[in-house]
Amino acid sequence: MPSVGSMLELIGDLGSSMVTVHQDRCVLVRNRNADCLRCAQACTSGCISYDGTRLEVSPERCIGCGTCATVCPTCALEAHHPNDAALLARCRQAAEESQGVVCVACAELLERAQGLFDEDKLVRVECLGRVDESLLSTLAAEGIREVVLAHGSCETCNHATGYDVCKRVCATQRALLDAWHSPMKLRLTRKLPTVVQSSGRAYDMSKRSSLKLCGAEGMRMGAAIADLAVRDALQDGREPGTGDAAPRYVKVMDDGTLPHFLPDRRERLLDALAAIGDPEDVMIDTRLWGHVIIDTDICTSCRMCATFCPTGALSKFQDENGSFGVEHYPGDCVKCRTCEVICPAGALSISEEVFAVDMLAGVTDRYKMKPVGVKRGDAHTIWHVAQTMMKTDQVYER
Fold first, then answer.
1. Max Cα-Cα span within the chain
2. What's the CA gap between 259 and 297, in Å, rounded?
3. How far apart are CA 358 and CA 344, in angstroms?
4. What would the 3-class secondary structure string for 140-184 be?
5. Contact (Cβ atoms closer than 8 angstroms) between residue 116 and residue 151
6. pLDDT of the chain along its 398 residues, tens only?
7. Residue 293 and residue 227: Cα distance in Å, rounded?
8. For the chain, what is the HEC assignment?
């Protein structure tokens, strides 16, 4: 694994007009012992790669597919080709043209199908790995009757990992649609649906690539994105086009934890599910949420799990009667698995299944922990006491 400093430099190199990098959200930056490399595993172009010993970044290879942003649990990578708002707007436009059907198709398929479809009736993306559950659930909440994800020859495509990500997203979304009793249909298919056929009109080359946009409209959109990138760069104290701000360590908050951030995508997803209605009281197994289980018999009460939790799904508590421990809210869990990996005692595990009703109800699990004993006569007693006080606020002599 790279050091924190080298990881800051590597992830900073990813910043471009297609991807915004939020260094302080990356779990590897927050804790060097974390093992999340999902962006490298899912990258469709070789922009991010990991050979088992070395992590490398080649920003010139980025095609702006957005697959890395889909798999990043904390949204440390944010796609801008297009951004989430523009993609949702384009889906709404396509639905109006196609009687409530949204077809999202990859560029490879559309290149082979030139002249056979109406560009106004579908949404073009570089790769279907760009599609995530917050988009699909929002469409379901808005009454879209069907979403068709059309792909090309993924077996021979250079960006096949994006198709694998899309399949995982579809599996999660179908579980959500079933649990929330949504009537929206979701299809992953090799063929464009008949509803997007060109209706006998001549294919207009000037309308190619709905998302890239052409002509004056495309120039205005491109300029607006560039202006936003420059503005954000200046606010962060960095030169435009140089990635994220200069390497810096995240400041610890008053409660001894690192700052928390619930990704916007996760908030939009939860809002969309709330708008759909109440779910069935069932367990769901998805790529998005995990249920933290702590064995308090072997737990050392260090509460490092809460210290490094990126979203605050794990939080510290201390009652007036002196009891203390951590609480877990599955609704805010992004299943980054940082807590599971860094637990020094191996006392923490993550269940793949969560109760659907817990996602919106604010239900938490509370794990009360044992006071930490301090062994006298040890050469490192003072150091251990200081560490213990910072972690638990509970020190007892034994």
1. 88
2. 29
3. 28
4. HHCCCCEEEEECCCCCCCCCHHHHHHHHHHHHHHHHHHHHCCCCC
5. no
6. 555 455 555 555 565 678 888 888 888 888 888 888 899 899 988 888 877 767 788 888 888 899 999 999 999 889 988 999 999 999 999 999 999 999 999 999 999 998 889 999 999 999 999 999 999 999 999 999 999 999 998 878 878 899 999 999 999 999 999 999 999 999 999 999 999 988 654 334 333 333 333 333 433 433 343 343 334 433 444 444 444 444 444 566 666 677 888 999 999 999 999 999 999 999 999 999 999 999 999 999 999 999 999 999 999 999 999 899 999 999 999 999 999 999 999 999 999 999 999 988 888 999 999 887 655 556 555 555 555 545 444 444 44
7. 46
8. CCCHHHHHHHHHCCCCCCEEECHHHCHHHHCCCCCCCHHHHHCCCCCEEECCCCEEECHHHCCCCCHHHHHCCCCCEEECCCCHHHHHHHHHHHHHHCCCEEEEEEHHHHHHCCCCECHHHCEEECCHHHCCHHHHHHHHHCCCCEEEEECCCCCCCCCHHHHHHHHHHHHHHHHHHHHCCCCCEEEEECCCCHHHECCCCCCCHHHCCCCCCCHHHHHHHHHHHHHHHHHHHHHCCCCCCCCCCCCCCCCCCCCCCCCCCCCHHHHHHHHHHHHHCCCCCCEEECCCCCEEEECCCCCCCCCHHHHHCCCCCEEEEECCCCCEEEEECHHHCCCCCHHHHHCCCCCEEEECEEECCHHHHCCCEEEECCCEEECCCCCCHHHHHHHHHHHHCCEEEC
pTM of the model: 0.78
Q: Tokens in use for 266?
A: 């996760």
